[in-house]
Amino acid sequence: MPIQLITAQQFLDELTRIPPSHGGGPSLIDARSEDEFAQDHLPGAVNWPSLNNEEHMRVGTLYKQVNAFEASKIGAALVAHNISQHIQQNVLSCDKSWQPIVYCWRGGKRSGSLALVLGQIGFKVKLIEGGYKAYRSALLTELPLKTSTMSFKVICGPTGSGKTRLLHALSQSGGQVLDLEALANHRSSVLGRVPGTEQPSQKHFDTLIGQALRTMNHHQTIFVEAESKKVGNLAVPEALIQKMRSSPCIDLRMNDDARVQLLMQDYSFFVDDSKLFAEKLNALKEIQGRAVIENWQHMIANGQIDAAVRELLLKHYDPTYQKSVERNFLEYQKAAVYELKTGDPENMSRLAKTIIAQEDQIIKA
Prior knowledge:
alpha/beta, single chain, Oxidized Rhodanese, domain 1, 2 domains, about 55% helix, Rossmann fold, five-stranded parallel beta sheet, globular
């Protein structure tokens, strides 16, 4: 059966209508190596390597050190073996209605080989022209176009005021939410890395943002937390950060005692591992000075974690955050201020419903 070529843009246009699986098999197959797939892949793809990591490196070395012909011979043998394995393990149970979309890096040799065999079996196969590289280019073109047509409302507020909790409450109450910290797997500060977790690659972060925006209604407000240009080690796409910085804001406030308690709950891993907490503060020595940091570390070592958190808020995070938000978010001075006594779920839920109701009124007006 002939292979149908589609462009990366056609794939993006159809993405929300592509089911995760049908006919017994996955809808989207990435034929690249495991490491290439791990760095980033098209939304919903599964990995069927035509060449695994070691084989991909071996063939690439032959190509550079010997010649393309010798590399192609070895590559063909390895690809044929791997495709056979994929068919035995994954395809024999598929019925004829299965219509996979296949891609690889760029040239189409690895994905083309898999598509050819599947087509010869009798499956209707689509092959993405230009592979992952073309998809990446289409995504980077799409992101600024999408963000330019969307309406954002930025949740501002000092550290510990419950911005992330409010985002979750907004989502649970039916609001549209873009949670950049969740996508980046980081809480966006020196202390923001959750122990035992890793951030995605920059490319995959971009893919996750594009995927999230693609599912959202352009006619409804999208709530997002105020962020700097980077969330941990990852850069927020330029068009998105600029759109956020020119969008209306909400200013969330909470008294110092409540903020300390909220942070003690949300960063409980530092309460449980005070040595890790103290060690992380070393990153602030250049800003706060050795004496200040060592005093905070002494407080932590003596079990005064809540007192150390309070000082960290008042002497470091608050002044830094206030300068940043006033400088970068153009609409901050006009922000509606909401004050909460605590960050309890009930309070957050009530506030979320109030905010959504107000947004609905603005849209209807």
